[in-house]
Every structure is written in C-alpha cells, then in structure tokens.
C-alpha cells in the first residue's frame, strides 16, 4: 500500500484548509487506499529559510525530519488555501527548501477558499513552482469552495456522497501516477 503525505499548508489562526487534510486522511484509510499521514506546517512553525536544505551547514532536526517525510513518501497531497490569488508563504518556504526530494514525486493539489471559486486561482502558481522542482503534478484538481460550510472541524464533509465521489477520482489519479512512477523505477 502506498504511503501518502498530506501536506496541510496553512499556519493562520482560524484556518479551514486543515479540515480538508483531515478528510483526505480519513477517506484514504476508510477506503483502504493508502497509508496517509498529515504533515502540518502549523505544527512545524518553520523559520523563513535563507537557503535550500542541501546547502545548509547545520539544519535543524525538524527540518531533516520534514525533508525525509517528503522524500520517503510515495506521493503527496498538498492542501492549500488561496490567499489573494496565491498560496501561503509557509508553503512556498518549504517548496523552496527542498529540491531533490520533489524530483518525480507524484503530487496532487487540493485548493480551498472561503469564497465561491475554491482556490482555483492558486493552482497554476503552485504547479509552476513544483514543475521547477521537477515534481510530477497530478493532472487532477480538488477545489473546495466555501470550505467553512463544506467540512466540519473534524474533517467530515457536509455532503459526504458527492465529496467522496470527487475524492475517488482525485485520489485514484494520484495512485495511478504513483504506480506509474514505481513501474518506471523497476
């Protein structure tokens, strides 16, 4: 079974995107699709990095732990809010921190917003940064408009059937990319 990291990227007070990260963890485990672990940037509270990890003379243990989680995973689901058409500085900070760890890593992007567009404006800028890192961005999206009404604080979808249907297509695309990557390594 694949090991998937769910990167919860908001560090704001009162954030809602974490609800979607919780949902994906439950969804993958309940449907026996993958082993899922949430890596929460709010827990790490990283400083602003002034250099890539591979050029840091004495990286902090939590930085090395984070890098290893990304590197050793089979795939990643990034859950990001849209802030004024872009993604959070905390996410940009860790995307730029790593390089080799992103190389050919199947990475799916779920976006959220409090408004009606579900964070879709952030997808192209985040994809572009990940492409520059040579990540394999999965050709599937999971936008969540009005996230505050779509999920409760425990990650339960208010319309479970419709959300599960969308999640099924999204996660299966990620799993397909993981399988393709594994076959290419053989």
Automatic annotation (TrEMBL):
Transmembrane domains' residue ranges: none
Cited InterPro entries: Flavoprotein-like_sf, FMN_Rdtase-like_dom, NAD(P)H-dep_reductase
Gene Ontology cellular-component annotations: cytosol
GO MF annotation list: FMN binding; oxidoreductase activity
Sequence ranges assigned to domain NADPH-dependent FMN reductase-like in this UniProt record: 3-146
A Pfam family that the UniProt record links to this protein: FMN_red
Protein name: NADPH-dependent FMN reductase-like domain-containing protein
The species this protein was found in: Cytophaga hutchinsonii (strain ATCC 33406 / DSM 1761 / CIP 103989 / NBRC 15051 / NCIMB 9469 / D465)
Taxonomic lineage from the root: Bacteria, Pseudomonadati, Bacteroidota, Cytophagia, Cytophagales
